[in-house]
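Need tokens for this chain, all 364 residues.
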Amino acid sequence: MSGFGRSTPAPGNRTARPYVAPTAERRLEKKLAAVEKSSLVLTEKPVAGLTTRVNEKELGKGAMVIHMGQTDGNTIQLAIHRAIGSVPNALATTWNITPKSQISTLLGAKNPFEGKTQQRVSALKVEYGVSQKVLLKNPDGQITYPDGVIRDVALADARKFSELHASVEGSKTLKPAFLYGGPAVATAELRYLNTLAQSQELQAKIDSETAPYLSYETKDPVTGQTQVAMSWAEGLPPEQLPIVLMDVITTGSYNASKWDVLKEKPARKSTPFSVWGYVEGHVPPDKLARLKEMLLEYAKIRKDYNLSVPQGQKAELAETNDQKAKRLSLHVDLQMAVKRVNEAERFEVKPYVPYDGKSFKKKA
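Here are the structure tokens for all 364 residues:
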């Protein structure tokens, strides 16, 4: 030993420690540590600029977007939706799958036969209505109901009230929109539409005129890509589709015995040229008149309120106390007007039930 303190064994004279085999628990800890060190850490976080909007009016109720991504940043979004535009023999219960990047181009693609077909079908309907005397043509060439009321004017007025009613918070609108025209317009329009829907002769002419339109298939104008139908999903209700899709992804296949029981009966996809009739309902004339009166009052107050709202930051800063007080007062008036409309629409209605002309069977 040299110096002071702890003695240090000379080289070669160290005492070897006895070997202790690691326990099973320790071996597992080492394996887990090695896995953790070499693994990729996946985190879920918002992607800058990524927004998902699904317009059910264009893509169908229950349409969805699936996001898929890898750690290297590669991502793809797929939309599951109803048929867009023109798809020959498409059903209303069909589900298609399309890269989200193609959706806007599909929605923007036009059927080249649409304009001409629309004009010809409209003319066929009016011509048939006139031939059956449910419509008349006055000396000025305008189409009228038998009582002389100009049809386009009456329907435009009814549509104005329908759209106004739909803009009221919490409203429950009448269907179809021509009911807002009042009893006389509703009766005349119903008679005309049912005359069309119950004519096999007219339906045959419309089928002939629409053949080019219906045989055209909407496609991406750049790539020529058409929509791909998910045949296994045909008929699945919108609320069940995500559940079934997850099952297909996790199991690798579609279990028909498990999921087919949920499927809805295939329905023919309607076209802009489908002929619709209605089983007659009833709307109390006095209640409708009161509702329209409240809608006009609401429209006036809403207009006054909108005019009182300052536009832009500069106008907001320049708003006087009197102007602000008037604006707040009009806002209260507007809320009360909404309440009066909601109260006026609470009346018993026998609904007008639509039916497709193709499904109509003439009684023997």
